[in-house]
Task: inverse folding
């Protein structure tokens, strides 16, 4: 494998100073997958203070855990000393770390075999746990005992599902068994981290893989029930990859399966961004905004930015045709908001209206334009105002 110049720079300088150094983890996995790594991480036998002596302008971002950020040409590279993790009493972070001079010990603490691969500056790969073979076989397998790995850090269970969705890999049988038995420990993971992993899985090419996480109970702490039908996410892959439409579809599917009382409940439990919570709730709680309304009225009700949540809900509810029409409507550029009218509030004031009458006029004009999109011109709206049509 060929390392990027920034990784060659860092590993080479550490090697010249007498230390072992390797690109490690996700960057090696991505290279084996034929992808361009977005980030480069390096592990080394050098202690943090020794790394900082080799790179005087480096940043001590995580000295306690052995991590220093090095300013390499064209990129920032995280450099971490070989280490062994202590116990994990909170199922998330090691109680302590111990530095080691063994690369194998450092790789042994990692989550999955595909992430426990190192590569030297000359391209020679170190793969003691069969990560390359698992990548070729498209299998996600834990390093060592899956129960130990998941007991240490419950977030790894969500990461396994997310990688499965992103890469299209299958979960190893032992890993899946461990996930089923240790799912209750998912409650120790911060909701924000669960949301981040959920978003990555949902916006991947295979979002239906996320159904497994709900099936085994990883999301139980964020749901109001498990009664009802089996969760079906098969429709999600045909939707645009944006988080708005995918979360709308997910929430609709969860409600249909009896797993949550409302989209807002689930999204708030995940501590999703406020705008996304409001969008999903507007599309689905308590009366879906798209039921009994035209598509344009729906889009106007929930706002252009998040109308795709309603589109996703339509798809999950079996209204695929309406979903496509909603997407076409949003792409058409038609007026869906008072701010998109051809006349501003100032324009209307100049025509003689004042105070609350301006807002009432704007709402009337929007209602008309939603039904007659081609009338959204300054000339036509001015004519309507002069005829007291609003």
Result:
């Amino acid at each position: 494998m060929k390392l990027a110049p920034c990784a060659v720079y860092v590993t080479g300088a550490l090697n010249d100073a007498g230390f072992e150094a390797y690109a490690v983890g996700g960057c090696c996995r991505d290279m084996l997958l034929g992808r361009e790594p977005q980030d480069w991480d390096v592990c080394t036998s050098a202690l943090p203070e020794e790394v900082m002596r080799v790179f005087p302008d480096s940043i001590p971002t995580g000295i306690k855990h052995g991590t220093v950020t090095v300013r390499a040409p064209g990129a920032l590279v995280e450099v971490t000393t070989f280490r062994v993790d202590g116990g994990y009493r909170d199922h998330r972070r090691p109680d302590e770390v111990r530095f080691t001079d063994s690369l194998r010990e450092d790789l042994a603490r990692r989550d999955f075999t595909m992430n426990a691969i190192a590569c030297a500056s000359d391209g020679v790969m170190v793969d003691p746990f069969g990560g390359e073979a698992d990548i070729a076989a498209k299998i996600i397998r834990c390093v060592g005992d899956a129960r130990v790995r998941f007991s240490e850090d419950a977030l790894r269970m969500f990461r396994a599902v997310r990688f499965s969705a992103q890469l299209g890999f299958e979960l190893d049988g032992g890993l899946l068994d461990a996930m089923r038995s240790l799912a209750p420990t998912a409650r120790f993971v911060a909701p924000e981290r669960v949301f981040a992993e959920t978003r990555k899985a949902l916006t991947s090419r295979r979002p239906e893989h996320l159904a497994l996480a709900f099936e085994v109970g990883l999301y139980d702490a964020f749901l109001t029930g498990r009664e009802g039908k089996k969760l079906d996410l098969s429709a999600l892959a045909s939707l645009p990859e944006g988080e708005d439409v995918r979360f709308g579809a997910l929430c609709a599917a969860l409600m249909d399966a009896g797993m949550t009382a409302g989209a807002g409940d689930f999204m708030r439990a995940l501590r999703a961004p406020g705008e996304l919570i409001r969008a999903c709730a507007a599309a689905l709680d308590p009366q879906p905004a798209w039921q009994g309304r035209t598509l344009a009225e729906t889009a106007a009700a929930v706002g252009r930015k998040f109308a795709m949540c309603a589109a996703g809900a339509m798809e999950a509810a079996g209204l695929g045709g309406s979903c496509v029409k909603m997407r076409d409507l949003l792409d058409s550029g038609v007026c869906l908001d008072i701010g998109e009218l051809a006349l501003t509030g100032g324009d209307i004031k100049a025509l003689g209206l004042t105070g609350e009458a301006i807002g009432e006029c704007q709402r009337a004009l929007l209602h008309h334009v939603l039904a007659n999109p081609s009338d959204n011109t300054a000339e036509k709206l001015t004519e309507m105002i002069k005829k007291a049509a609003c």
